[in-house]
Amino acid sequence: MKKQLFNLSRKCFFAGLFLALLGFQQSYAQQTITGSVSDDLGPVAGANILIKGTTSGTQTDFDGNFSIEASPEDVIVISYVGYATQSVTVGNQTTINVKLAEDASQLDEVVVIGYGTSKKKDVTGAVSRVSSESFENQPLTRVDEALQGRAAGVTVAKANGAPGAGIKVRIRGVNSITGSNDPLVVIDGVLGGDLSTLNPNDIASMDVLKDASATAIYGVRGSNGVILVSTKKGSGKGKISVDFFTSVSQVPDLLPTLADNVGDFARIENIRKLSIGQNPTFTDAEIAALDANGGTNYQDEILRTGFSKNLQISASGSEGKIRYFLSGNYRDEEGIVINTGYQQLSLRSNIDAQISDKFKVGLNIYGSRGEKYNNFEALGNGQGSLMYKANTWDPTTPVYDADGNYNRRSIKGIASLNLNPVLTLNETQASDVDERLSATLNASYQITDNFSYTMVAGTQINNYNVQRYAVEGADDTPDANFNTNKFTSYQISNIFTWQKLFNDTHDIKLTGVQEYQNSKNVFNSYNADNLLLPNGFYFAETASGFSIGNNFGERELSSFMLRAEYVLNDNLSVTATGRYDGTSVFRPGKKWGFFPSIAAGYSIINPSKSSGYFNSLKLRAGWGQVGNQGVDNYGTFANLGSNIYAYSGGSPSPGTFITSFANVDLTWETTSQTNVGIDLGFNEGRGSFSVDGYKKRTTDLLLNVPVSGTNGGGNVNKNIGEVENFGIDVALGYDIIQNENFNWNSNLALSHVKNEVTQLFDGLEQIDGQFQAPGGQARVVNIIQLGQPLGQLNGATFLGTWKSSEATAAEAFGKKPGDAKYLRDADGEIVFGAIGNGTPTLTWGFNNTLSFKNWDINIFLNGSHGFDIYNLMQAGITGGAGDSRSFMAADQINQWTPSNETDIPATVQLFNSSRYIEKGDFVRLSNLNIGYTFKDFAGLPNTSLKLYAGGQNLFLITDYSGYDPELSSRRTAQGNADVAPGINVGAYPNPRTYTLGLKVGF
Questions:
Q1: Which of 567, 677, 802, 960 lies at a 20 to 30 A Cα distance from 58?
Q2: So what's the pLDDT on residue 377?
Q3: How many CB atoms lie within 10 A of CB 710?
Q4: For residue 163, what are the CA distances in angstroms to 124, 342, 501, 503, 977?
């Protein structure tokens, strides 16, 4: 019996022990945990799911769902860029659903650095980010409005205020004298984009690579900096957004002229005629009638109130393993100059698919059609633009005669001798059509946990057609011309990336790229003169004179790149890059160039380990070289021009002449840059500060050198000359107020740059520019000087007027009291030289975003300082010369007289002199926008309605007397715009705009 009890007890003991061990084992057994990750808008795709302390992890799918093996004691860490990281202990849960909250300090943790991304704290180069959050409360039609003043080291200026006008972007000064200084624009990995045609509402972020250690990855394409544009992607629950706004635009102020005091104009015109020995133009009775009835202000006649509208619709989200972002934009802008305007329609489709855990593919398609109507650049402006002609036109001649027909010319034959500007604008039919289509296919495959391959294939097609019909010329007969420029390109990039973390200490990443690009350009044109049937463009075949032009160009670029990134202990970061480029534009033996860079950054205070007021402090330094292939496709060859000649009175026949000579030794222009920087974060990430100092030196400039007439004339491309840029970039951001109901964020971006030409060719200390002043004097108004910045303005030094006491001295130069007085040399000749510089040395932008409950306010100011404006518009209305000899300036009523010896000349003077140099410094309120958002509108969840109103260019603080100091104007074929900045010969005015709009999201 005892034995049986013992056996039973033993069985029970082992059974209990077995059950206990089984329970112990089960407590550590892994099980499948499923769950989802979402935010306020719906599911979050691509969130990282990691078991703490291990390398075991996964990602959420496009619906925000995940599945992972975990034990009850495991801690699951959920993270996603821009959101606060969350940790959840598994316990007895089998389903874990997490809602992420935004973390402002982490929103831009990852930045695009070209052919990949990097954590912001590991970036070693000078990179500035502009995210859509910084401009989403500003009604935008142009990308330059989003970029301007928001990235330190980046200068953005409008060419003019015309609808659809071009954008001028410069990064850390200018390098080239005759080549382009435009930065490289990369849109979703495809090189060679155009910011002016991009829909700003499609942009998720813009990362600007500024120093050579960052741009060297693009080699020959990165010499002027790189702007990496990332367009929006879809995720989560489907969303539709509609944004519509309408605008009213006006010129802020008219220029003061004697058109407002036309009687005084007539009196001063009589005095002018008497001073040159001619009879007075106006009788006393005519002057009395003008005093009583006034005249015609042609400036007012060609300006108007412009009305514009902009509609943006987008849909985004994810369905299963497909993500999508679709958008459409329609833009219709009336210009503030009569019969001018711009229309654009653009469509975008961004589709991404997760084919498998390792394979992803995406297709981006973008198409746009923009049409400028009566673009100033397409109109004849040999005597200044139409704004210039309107301000110098005879105010005593009405627009129409008694029969309702145009007064084609001045009745009195005075003031501007050009065609009536109202007639020119109303009767001109000029259409510039820009049609673009681009497609990008990107595919990536995760070969192993550490090794991946990405392919980017892109193509672009651009058709730019100009169709023009105008009445102009001395005989007032209509002309028609047409030209078409078809540009096609494609690119294939193969990107290999390997990354591995060793012992939680050494993080190594290698990126290798093989890339090929090809572009072709076909140009065709015809000109038809003196149409026999003046009924429009489509009667061009009735012209009595024809000429045609054709051109073709092709270039190829083949490249290899290797970048190595190393991070030690999450503190020390080192990046080294080498790119090898070969281009078709140079001859054998000169085609290939190698462009290296190296940069390092060290975190004295690491953001992941800090606990004090200063949460991050990093020092950066880098050096690198980039190239420039900025010559024409066949710039190393001799080129011919064509014309029609008539010999000895015979019939005209075509002929050719040399326009440029060959140079088989032509090669890369090289820019070397050194950069040092400091990044500081403080107050728990609420504040950030960065400062960079740099020096750029461009050698072997691709310079278009004139050839003397004794050697045949023309020009030749050579590698000669040097330019240097020194500068400082400063960026400061701070969340001034941050609480549940009220937030105020401010960001300041400031850039200072000093440019210097350090070497020219053949020992020269000065070469003339190509910008000629209107008026027929054939004097250039810009020069390039050794030891001085690019942008030197050329002219005589104005010393006021010859006074009565100086009559004898004036007579020695053929002058008399009341004439303009200029600085002269020892031989008595007027001295021409540098009288100013049109390149700004300091630019800044100050962006403020405030929100109070459902209200939001955006205030954006920007400024530019340290530059001059050559106000040749003012010279024209002061009676400079050429076709605009009459005095129109309002201050001419105080001109020199024997009893009132002022410094305002009473006779015609030099067009280009320091009298017309003005300081261009300005401060502008670029945007003020106020909005109110109704959440869960109409009782529908996740639906919003926002109403907003605001204004752009609301005030301008400047001493400049023209319309706007930021604008400049130039005629075609007058050289590089960067060696002739700040010159105004009648730029299209920059309007003041008032906007009202609504935005619906559901």
A1: 567
A2: 64
A3: 6
A4: 39, 5, 52, 58, 20
The mean pLDDT value of the chain amounts to 88
711 pLDDT tier (thresholds 50, 70, 90): low
Q: What are the start-end ranges of the H helices in 751-806?
A: none
3-state secondary structure of 308: strand
Indicate whether 779 and 880 sit together in one domain. Answer: yes
Q: What length is written for the chain?
A: 1002
Distance CA 948, CA 951 (A): 10
Average of pLDDT values for 906-934? Answer: 93
Question: Residues of 557-594 as b/e, b for ≥16 C-beta within 10 angstroms?
Answer: bbbebebebbbeebbebbbbbbbbbbbebbeeebbebe
| Structure token digits, residue 783 | 């020069």
Distances (CA, A) of 80 to 83, 101, 570: 6, 10, 19
The Cα–Cα gap between 885 and 647 comes to: 37
Q: Are 347 and 90 in contact (CB under 8 A)?
A: no
Largest CA distance in the chain: 152
Query: Are 128 and 76 part of one and the same domain?
Result: no
Residues 206, 95 within the same domain: no
Q: With 50 as the cut, is the pLDDT of residue 9 above it?
A: no
Q: What are 111's strand-pairing partners?
A: 118
Containing domain of residue 875, as a range? Answer: 764-790+792-837+869-919
What CA–CA distance (Å, rounded) separates 949 from 930? 6
Give 976 or 759, the one with higher predicted confidence. Answer: 759
User: Which residue type, as a one-letter code, is found at position 937?
Assistant: F
Q: Tens digits of per-residue pLDDT, 156-210? A: 887 788 898 877 899 999 988 887 889 999 999 999 888 888 899 999 999 999 9
CB-count burial class (<10 Å; 0-12, 13-18, 19+) for 23: exposed
Percent above pLDDT 70 for the chain: 91
Cβ within 8 Å of residue 43, ≥6 positions away: 36, 37, 60, 62, 63, 64, 65, 235, 236, 237, 318
Q: Which structure tokens are listed for 237?
A: 């629950």
Is 896 inside any structural domain? yes
Q: Number of structural domains, the chain?
A: 3
Per residue in 391-408, is it b (16+ CB within 10 Å) or e — as a string? bbbbbbbebeeeeeebbe
Mean pLDDT of 465-489: 84
For residue 925, the SS3 value is strand
Dihedral sign (CA 354, 205, 111, 51): negative
Q: What stretches of 381-471 adopt beta strand conformation (E)?
A: 429-446, 451-471
98, 115: one domain: no
Q: Would residue 568 count as lying in a domain?
A: no
**CA nearest to 984, candidates 1001, 1002, 965:** 965
Considering 884, 903, 919, which residue would you say is the last residue of a domain?
Answer: 919
Residues 714-737 have pLDDT tens digits of 788 888 899 999 999 999 999 999
Does residue 784 register a pLDDT over 50? yes
Among 56, 81, 102, the domain-final residue is 102
Cα-Cα-Cα-Cα dihedral sign, residues 408, 413, 414, 418:
positive
The confidence score (pLDDT) of residue 612 equals 79
pLDDT surpasses 80 at 952:
yes
- Comparing CA positions, the residue from 987, 991, 789, 979 lying closest to residue 872 is 987
Both 809 and 903 in a single domain? yes
